[in-house]
Write a structure and sequence with these properties.
about 300 residues; Aminopeptidase; 9 helices; about 30% helix
């Protein structure tokens, strides 16, 4: 188990080696921790060398599931490291009342996919990563729909509960998220809105006669790169251009503040947001397969 900053950085280096197209910073790691109700990070050794890492997290909106990130260096696979991490994470998750595990593999990584399917994991969803290159890009002339005003959360901190109600309504609309439940407001604020990569200045709210009808927020993950963390519009207000105006506002803010790129990831069946990102210039990159499967049983853990 990681217990200090050096081991934490080692775990991060292994992840970025295995997932070079999705490299993350230590701030992203800490933000993920801050999103979770409980979190663990294991390292596995082979002959004294650290060859893999396994992260487990329990989120408040899916407490029955352990989110796992298992990464084993390619040259060190097929020696039991992945199986050892799966076993350790299963034991950890069972102790916390989880009933299943989520894992992810890169589309095209046949070896990792076989490892998961051999353990009865089944595909739940696919996420398509996209990147918008901001270098040399001109700002948008943002024209919100008639009757819609866009403000920042920094300007209107009183609108937090309105954003929460939008999130509660829309979260389960995302394909593969039907079993997501709403955390209580105070926990939602802690786990989703006030992490170290969140910013009220980079959180944008769509208002209609004072009612919050949508919002979008950036995750400030690196000095030159930010992520689209969330774009949500109430169901009865969709199809009017609100999401587009919110995302154009995000892009303009990123340009003004010197960012070189924006990253996003969306479920491939989420046609409206994928079409919008394409229109705005986001270019597709890798596809990630998310699978859900069983934890090892008590008998298997003892064996």
């Amino acid at each position: 188990m990681c217990v200090d900053e050096i081991e934490e950085m080692t775990s991060l280096e292994i992840y970025n080696t295995v997932w070079p197209h999705d490299d993350v910073t230590i701030d992203v790691v800490h933000t993920f921790k801050e999103s979770a109700v409980d979190y663990v990070d294991y390292l596995v050794r082979d002959g004294g060398d650290i060859v893999g890492s396994g992260v487990g997290a329990i989120l408040g909106n899916r407490a029955h599931r352990c989110i796992s990130l298992i990464a084993v260096l390619p040259a060190k696979r097929n020696r039991g490291a992945g199986a050892a991490l799966y076993k350790a994470l299963s034991a950890w998750a069972r102790e916390r009342g989880a009933r299943e595990m989520e894992a992810r593999v890169a589309d095209g990584d046949a070896e990792s996919l076989s490892f998961a399917r051999h353990r009865d994991f089944i595909e739940e969803r696919r996420q398509v990563s996209r990147v918008l290159n901001l270098v040399g890009m001109s700002p948008f002339n943002v024209n919100p729909p008639d009757g819609i005003e866009i403000v920042t959360w920094a300007l209107r901190p009183d609108l937090a509960r309105g954003m929460y109600m939008v999130d509660v309504e829309t979260r389960t609309d995302i394909p593969g998220s039907r079993d997501v439940i709403a955390e209580p407001f105070d926990e939602w604020i802690e786990h989703f809105m006030k992490r170290r990569t969140d910013s009220p200045e980079a959180t944008f709210i769509a208002l209609a006669e004072g009612e919050v009808v949508g919002f979008a927020k950036l995750s400030l993950t690196a000095p030159a790169s930010a992520g689209n963390s969330m774009t949500a519009v109430k169901r009865t207000w969709r199809g009017r251009g609100i999401a587009g105006a919110l995302k154009e506002t995000e892009i303009n803010w990123a340009l003004l503040n010197g960012y070189a790129e924006l990253r996003t990831s969306n479920e491939e069946r989420n046609v409206p947001i994928n079409r919008l990102n394409e229109r705005l210039g986001y270019q597709p990159r890798e596809t990630t397969i998310y699978l859900v499967g069983p934890l090892l049983s008590d008998a298997q853990l003892q064996g």
